[in-house]
Amino acid sequence: MELGYISNQPAREEIDALTGATVLQFGTNWCGYCARSEPHVEAAMADAPDVRHIKVEDGKGRPLGRSFAVKLWPTLIFLADGVEVARLVRPTTREAVDEELAALR
Known about the structure:
single chain; alpha+beta; 25% strand
């Protein structure tokens, strides 16, 4: 299953400069936890077309994930104008994602 995490990640400065609502999702295309969370994340994001969703491949030597202190996958960082307002690690329900999306509105 291809989960669509991008390997060419943006720089932290680019993320910090974003305007509006953004969900930054860290994980890998081969991660089992990521695959199990994907339906919940995708369903919630489908109902939030005004929120930018960036899926970034994380791992050793990946500076963006380290700058956000990501330890487990998937980790979703909810940003308002480039500033973290919420974080969700290994979501198991759509409702958990919806709850954190509410912090952006």
